[in-house]
Amino acid sequence: MEEMQLTFEEAINKLNEITNRIQKSDCSLDESFALFEEGVKLADYCARKLDSYNQKLNELTGKLESSNEQ
What we know:
Layout: H1 8-24, H2 29-69
Helix pairs in contact: 1-2
């Protein structure tokens, strides 16, 4: 899968737009499926971004704790 070049906020906004379009039920089954597929990719992207930030946060707080112990 190609790497997305979106901020977390942009990805969440796109995901919300997709959700709203699907919920309106004014698109064909094929279009709904394509939107759903894009939504899954965006959700995965957001989850990976959050995991990355969480890992960085844990690293930083670990460094902070170890420097406070010294």
